[in-house]
Amino acid sequence: MRLIIGFLLIGILFINCSNEKKDVKQMEIKKENYGTVDGKAAYLYTLTNKNGMTVKITNYGAIVQSLTVKDKNGVYEDIVLGYDKLESYLEATPYFGAVVGRYGNRIAKGKFTLDGTEYTLATNDGENHLHGGLKAFDKVVWDAKPTASGLKLTYLSPDGEEGYPGNLYITLIYTLTDNNELKIAYEATTDKATPVNLTQHSYFNLSGNCNTDILSHEVWLNADHFTPVDNTLIPTGELHPVEGTALDFRKPTEVGARVNNDEEQIHFGRGYDHNWVLNDVDGSLKLQASVYDKSTGRYMEVLTEEPGMQFYCGNFLDGSNVGKGGKVYNYRTGLCLETQHFPDSPNKPDFPSTILRPGETYTTQTVYRFSVK
Ligand code: GLA
Fold it and tell me: Is the residue at 10 inside a domain?
């Protein structure tokens, strides 16, 4: 009997070790110097999976700097917007590839009241607060540590940073799998009640060249409703059916098919820049959106645990951002699918809560999965 147990233990140990070895062998991580910000070193990490797909991530802003994905002919190309050099990210950038927080998206007039105290945040988007403020999570250097299959980034956002209450300790793990998935797992804890809404702000262009706009990309969103906005992009508080509007993506539809429709919501968003209320949300990871580029066959699926999806189609890109390899990012040459809670939730008691309290742990996951059709 002892002998059998002994063999079993050795067997389990052996399986464990060989799994670890397999992980280490399959995932390659390269680390390069990328510059210095606020006296802290920034690095560029390259993760390569066994198929040859790569993702480059910098610990400055937890930014995905490049993502190469193969097309229907097996050709790998970079499908995200961004810059070659760190210096360009330090200048005004429309959040290319970054992780945004403490509150991704907008808070009306930069004000919210929590447990009887009113908090004032920067109004960095007209009269509203956007994406965590002036020097938010996209503009700080995170601590980074490679793991067996990815990169672990941590950041302590001090009490009062950008006007938010509480020390917020965030852990973010990027994983590149051999199924061609980029996984993002977020975790956060706080010592005072605070709103938290983290998201990833990559701009995708599945054509792989960014010379063409994304209007022929076919988008599917698993949402029967969206949150209509006012002309400053703050939700009115209603959930409006997508039926009969340009925001109906329940069947895969080209972005360009209705993006210029003469509808109030399209005027307010200057195209698509809205939050979709995802169906079937129960906190588990669900397939909620997809994008397909016929010309290259590239297909991206988005899985998330979040109740909302901000679909933004690059309406503010105007050719003033010169990106990787000198490429000019023109109008609508990238689209974002930002998984998140609804905009302005701290001021909308009927929206799912974004308040994290001491003793609780914020956890959420999003997966961008790539294949060809
Ligand atoms: C988000 C917003 C957009 C815009 C971009 C950055 O997606 O919803 O309105 O601000 O970020 O340009």
Answer: no
Q: How many structural domains comprise the chain?
A: 1
Pocket-testing residue among 335, 336, 337, 341, ligand 1, by greatest number of atoms within 8 A of Cβ: 336
SS (H, E, C) 77-101: EECECCCCCHHHHHCCCCCCCEEEC
Q: Which protein residue has the closest C-alpha to ligand 1 atom 5?
A: 94
pTM of the model: 0.93
How far is the C-alpha of 28 from the C-alpha of 125, rounded, in Å? 40
Catalytic site includes residue 301? no
Instruction: For residue 333, give the CATH number of its domain.
Output: 2.70.98.10
How many angstroms separate the alpha carbon of residue 312 from the centre of ligand 1?
Answer: 7
Encode pLDDT of 180-237 as tens digits. 999 999 999 999 999 999 999 999 999 998 889 999 999 999 999 999 999 999 999 9
Residue at 111 is within a domain: yes
Residue 23 lies in a domain: no
> Phi-psi region for residue 116, left (φ > 0), alpha (ψ -120 to 50) or beta?
left
User: Which of 125, 203, 312 has most ligand 1 atoms within 8 Å of CB, for mutation?
Assistant: 312
Question: Is there a domain that residue 144 lies in?
Answer: yes
